[in-house]
Amino acid sequence: MLLDLFDGALADRPSALALDDLTHRQLHDAALRVARRFDVLGVRRGDRVAIYSENRHAVVLSYLAALRVGAIAVPINVLYRRSDLAHAIGDAQPSLVVSSSGAAPFLEGIDTGGAASLDAAEVEACARNDSLTQLRPRPQRSPAPDDPALIIYTSGTTGVSKGAMLSHRNLAAIASQLTAAWRWSGSDVLLCTLPLFHVHGLVAALTSSLVAGGRLLLRERFDAAAVLECLHAAGVTMFFGVPTMYVRLIERVRAGGAAPPPLRLYVSGSAALSAQTHRDFEALFGASILERYGATEFGFALGNRYGGPRVAGSVGIPLPGVRVRVAAPDGTEPVSEGDVGELLVDGPNVFCGYWRQPAATAAAFAVDGDGTRWYRSGDLARYDPDADVYRIVGRIKELIVTGGFNVYPREVELAIEAFPGIRACAVIGKPDAARGELPVAFVETESPIDLEALEASLRERLASFKVPKDIRVVEELPRNALGKIDKPALNRRLSEI
Ligand code: AMP
């Protein structure tokens, strides 16, 4: 399965670069040395290996080593502090915790249940230790396709986070889907500034790059100036980012930075990319961003066509091997073409459930008359037959019902984002005694804007019940580690006022 895909790429391109300056052969051998160390520390098949560190080689090595010994890698958001961290560790019950010196202090006082610990620097030193020649090529019994390979705690912006389990089969499917859809080959060089504790960085970027036999340039974090500099350097063919990264790159070039020569592929995901950002980027960088839609529980489901057209403000069509359906609430019955419904996902990429949470797992699926188990994404979407693409209009939980009418936040956000000077915005529902809820907008601006003109322009373009009753300009919208706007934090802000 997944390990076979890695081994296939290794056999094809042993001396090609895989991770920064390490070749596929060197990375493979290094991961086996770390796997041996894990084995000596008592890590067994099915055990969890928690990885709590900023991006560095130790994260890649620990992930690969965990897979080699048949253990389950549990990357933990490096921004997690006491309660989230204690929850993830207490829930996953790892037998080994790998942490970097920057992150480790936050583990102090957290009950790790007697887990062994390894410092990230020790992992890297062990990987370089050529005297560890007795490499174990494989665990005694190779992991089965349905064995969990990864547990990723969901973003946690909607209550206590759950550990989504992705199996070896899931990861192999996701990597195969992305490499096929995006014509990914061994000659590709991907610049990765995304955190490796999330599917975007760990699976879309790292895992797929290893399966393609390509090279990954790993950076600790995103920095617009450093990214532009690196994109100018010869050889980078792909960049994956979240929308805020693209906004920052545009700002940087507008402020005088030189735009790099066009890359083969820019991908955006994890949150909605505004149509304006898509157009601005194309004008400045000469490349049309490929927007895709995904989630921890299924990797990726939809993406704009590689060969175009890449429709701004849309998430394109299903990836190879993925089926989606736009269904009526609480069911699997498709809505009429063009109507809004919940996006359901089916395919070999769909996760095997939440770690030790059978009830939450059961609730995450809807079964139709054919017996197909559809994953309920919780996202509202509609198929646009004119452009032949899907569009995400918001999360079910974020749907605003005002005076009995539905307001899809994304539709209002798109209308606001089209107004000059808006950098980003978020629309949420404010409780209201008379109408149940009222739409309220928070906007982050590039330059001072005329609020009355904005409101007048929204009135022209939107039904009156959709026009926010309150528009607040904020210096910076709250965002999570991936740059996604934290709407629960905005809700809290509203209730505090
Ligand atoms: P996570 O599990 O943290 O990756 O979050 C997944 C959620 O991010 C999805 O359920 C969507 O709500 C949102 N999301 C991901 N990609 C997109 C996109 N291209 N457009 C809009 N929302 C997105």
Account of the protein in words:
The structure is a single chain. With 497 residues, the protein is of the alpha/beta class. The chain has a seven-stranded mixed β-sheet, with helices on both faces. Strands 16, 17, 19, 20 and 21 form a five-stranded antiparallel β-sheet that branches. 31% of the residues lie in helices and 26% in strands. The mean pLDDT is 93. α9 links the parallel β11 and β12. It has helices spanning 2-12, 24-40, 57-68, 82-92, 120-128, 168-181, 199-212, 224-232, 243-254, 275-285, 358-363, 409-417, 451-461, 487-496, and strands spanning 17-19, 22-23, 48-52, 72-75, 96-99, 116-119, 148-153, 163-167, 189-192, 215-218, 238-241, 265-268, 290-295, 299-303, 317-318, 323-327, 340-346, 353-354, 365-367, 373-384, 389-395, 400-402, 405-407, 422-432, 436-445, 470-474. It is built from 14 helices and 26 strands. α3 (57-68) crosses α5. The protein has a domain at 400-496: GMP Synthetase, Chain A, domain 3, CATH 3.30.300.30.
